[in-house]
Every structure is written in C-alpha cells, then in structure tokens.
Amino acid sequence: MSALKSVFDYFRTDLAVDLGTANMRVGIPGEGVVLDEPSTVAVDKKTGRVLSDGLSVGYLARQMQGRAPDSILVARPLQRGAIANFRLCETMLRTMFGRIRKPGWSLSPRVLVSLLDSLTPVERQAALNCLARSGAGSVWTVSATAAAAIGAGLPVVEPSAGMVCLIGAGATEAAVFSLGNIVARQSLRIGCDDFDQAVVDYLRRRRGIRVGLAAAEALRMEIGDVSPVGESALTTTRAAEVSGTDVSTGLPFKTAVAADEIRQALAEPLDKIADAIRQTLDPCGPELAADLIEEGMVLCGGGALTTGLSRFIAVETGVPARMDDEPLTTVVRGLLVCLDQFDKWRPMLRRSEEVF
C-alpha cells in the first residue's frame, strides 16, 4: 500500500491557490509562487466566448479594462472574495492551471485554497465546486487569515497571541490567534477597491472630475499617505497629475491632485477598518492583550501597501502594526507552508469531497 501511495504522490502535484478578488496566485511546494495574475476575464458579449481563443485571462484581459468596446465584457469572476460568475471563474481557473501544468502531471492536483471567513456556506461551496470542475483532485480549505498568519510567521500554534489584518481588494478580515485557534475575528466587506472608489467619488464631488478606478489607484499609490497628521512622510502639498473628463462638459481634462485630497478621500473607509480592528480586540482577555501590545499585528494584502497605514492603525487601535515584508504574497506563502508541513497544520485545514 505504501508503494502504491509513493507512486501516486510522484505523479500528483500539490497546488496552493489564493483565489483573490483582484489577483489569483498559485504556488507549488518546492518552487514557490509560480503564477500571479489579475483575476480578470474578457469575453464577447454576443457569443459568451473568451477572447483570443480563450487566452484573454489575467494580464491580457486586465489591459482591456476601461478600453474595450461595448461588445466586450471585461469582468472579474469574483467579487468581495466570493464567486460572482461561476462560468467565468471556471474558465479562469482552467486557463490559469493550464499555464502552469507540466507534462508529468497525469493526475489531478491536490489543491489547498484560502477562503474568507465571511463567506456564506453557499459561497464556500460554490468555490469548492468551481475548483473541482476546473481540474482539481482533492480540495482542502483554510481560513485566509490563518494562511496569512502562517505566511507572516506569527506564533499561530503557541500559547501567545498573534494578530493579522488582511486587507484585500474586496474585503478586510482581522483575526487573533492562539494555540492554533482563532480567538477573535471580524470581517468587513471593504477593501482596496473601496479605497479607489472613494478617490473617484471625491474627485467627482469636490473637483468635478470623472476618473477611472485605475487612475484613482495610481494616485493612491503615488501620493496617498494616511499617516497621522504631523507624521506624514509626504508633504500635504505634494501633488500628481491625473487625466479624466470634466463632469459638466464631458471633455478630456488633466489636473493636479494634492496628497491631502487623497487623505480626505480615504478617511471614511479607513475609519471603518480601524473600527473593525477595535471590535476584534474587544473580546481578548488581559493576557492576550498584553501579548498584542508587545508583539503587535501584521498587515498584509494589497491595502497594506497604502503609505502610512500601519502607523494610522497603530494610533487608532493602540496596538503596534507593521506591514509584512511581502504583503501581496503572504497568503499564498502561508498555504505553501501548510502543504510543506501538511501533518503539522492538518488540524487547521478542512477537506471537501474527493472529485477524482
């Protein structure tokens, strides 16, 4: 039996899948992250077929966003961490898996996927079904915050508190861990997409300029600084140019936007995230609270890249915060650790039905 298992393991591979709203990342034990592409698909509205003979998935589709004619739909199959379009998500997964597939793979891979704690049972099952139909063998799941905590190197299984705050494109989740269990957690369906939408809304409302989400993201990353007033690394007078259209005339328009305007635009979504973190901390007892004051929390996900965010959260919550060294890959790196040391982390994983 052991010999048969060895043969089986030789031909099968393991995949770590971070199925994100904005980006999909896949890792292979021993090789690291082998795929990191936008979770975007471009299809012909009339036929429903993916463009470029099924290749308009990922970067190619992302390049079409905001530039495609009305006859083409450029969409994200996932919204707020949940599958919004099952067919497109299956197409995206099949294409992505095909890009990393090797000739020696003769059996369906064992997949470990991270899922948000906020997903409903129906949303969770939809993700599992989609992976199964896309070529996965056995599918295992783990909480996205648990994967992030492991990827960040927090003492998840030790008798001390560790805290992670995962700020993705469509959702934010904060969790406190101790002895391999989640002691407290909060989920909020606000993320980087809402940061960018807040910038879009601010410029339309205050400046009469209509800009796209991509331009808003570029502004946020270039001059956005949400550090407490007086601690900013950027001067409030720093500005960047943005192109858009004049709301009243509809004509193309270019203007300068100040860093302080981006701060004002981001105030509301960031206040909600800070409040969610405070609610996560409320149930923690004195001993756990003392650990967190000593060790602090780790920020990861795309939102963690917002300049000054760690200091903003530290001031708002009273708990030191730091950004993970590689916040975009924290989750998938945690998944790879789980696959590398499967028996150790097995108690934190859940298995779906075998599909091969």
Layout of helices and strands, plus pairs?
Layout: H1 2-11, E1 14-19, E2 23-28, E3 32-38, E4 41-44, H2 51-54, H3 59-64, E5 72-75, E6 78-79, E7 82-83, H4 86-100, E8 110-115, H5 121-133, E9 139-143, H6 144-151, E10 162-167, E11 172-178, E12 181-188, H7 192-207, E13 209-210, H8 213-223, E14 239-246, E15 252-258, H9 259-281, H10 286-295, E16 297-300, H11 309-317, E17 321-323, H12 330-340, H13 342-345, E18 350-351
Parallel strand pairs: 1-8, 8-9, 10-16, 16-17
Antiparallel strand pairs: 1-2, 2-3, 4-5, 6-7, 9-18, 10-11, 11-12, 13-14, 14-15
Helix pairs in contact: 4-5, 6-12, 7-8, 7-9
Spatial strand sequence of the major β-sheet: 3-2-1-8-9-18
Radius of gyration equals 21 Å
Mean pLDDT rating:
89
Strand residue percentage: 25-35%
As residue ranges, the low-confidence spans are: 1-11
Helix/strand/pairing category: alpha+beta
Determine the number of helices (DSSP H or I, runs of at least 4 residues).
Answer: 13
* Counted beta strands: 18
